[in-house]
Amino acid sequence: MTESTPKPVTIAVPRELKAPAWLERFFPPLASFVLFIAVWQGIILAAQLKPYVLPGPLAVIGAVVDNRSSLGESALFTFQASFVAFLVVMVLGTVIAFVLASSKFIEKAFYPYAVMLQSTPVIAIAPIIIIWFGFGFTSIVTISVIIAIFAVVANTTQGLISVENNLQNLFKLYGATKPQTLLKLRLPFALPFMVTGWRIAAAQVVIGVIVGEYMAGAGGGGMGGLGLIIAETSARLQTAYLFAAALCAALLGIGFFLVVNLFGHLLLKNWHESAIQFEN
User: Fold this and answer.
1) Tell me, what CATH number does 197's domain have?
2) Is the pTM of this model over 0.90?
3) Side-chain half-sphere CA neighbours of 217 within 13 A
4) What is the C-alpha separation between 217 and 129, in angstroms, rounded?
5) pLDDT in tens, 89-134
């Protein structure tokens, strides 16, 4: 009777536990938000600050609930002004960038003035804009455009002038015309730069509109935006209401950025390395 060969013993090794993808994406910002709220409340309790100096998170939430109607109307006005300003920034900034990139002479002649306009404090320009356009929607949008347009101009111009010489020489070798080179080489090459400019401008237009509302007053029909609420509540020491308006403005800016970021990702995801790596 032959002795049977023992069968090998198989030990089941548990798979590495891995958190769901949505948890990995949302847990870090959620954890930092909870930590921020805890530190905020801790500072108030430790320093025994008065509500008009620094209101607590619950007081701010209460101000949002109590003033939800006026905050909603003001946020809608700010959104409309921000949307119009962003469209103007995209179109006008891109046109200016194409003009600057069309010639070295034009770029050297006019680009310093774009830098100078960006470097000038808006508080020095706003009174002139209000004199020209009056108080209201037009002045608010104009101030926002001045604040945000340089990001689009600078990034788009940089993208258009950064095309490799070898690629441009190759297009010339095959007899490509200037419009063909622009549409099939320079524009695709500059598109990631343009998307970067749009992302920056998306946040800046909201800031610009808030500043414009703060300085240019109420809009048409006596309706004002979040900036006007911030101006009024700061003068009245209604700090919780002020924080509520600032929170709405921040959420509006984040929303603008996320929408533009998604739009840029859809434009780049099938061919540009940064979007492909993000997908993976």
Assistant:
1) 1.10.3720.10
2) no
3) 11
4) 13
5) 999 999 998 888 887 888 888 888 888 877 878 888 888 888 888 8
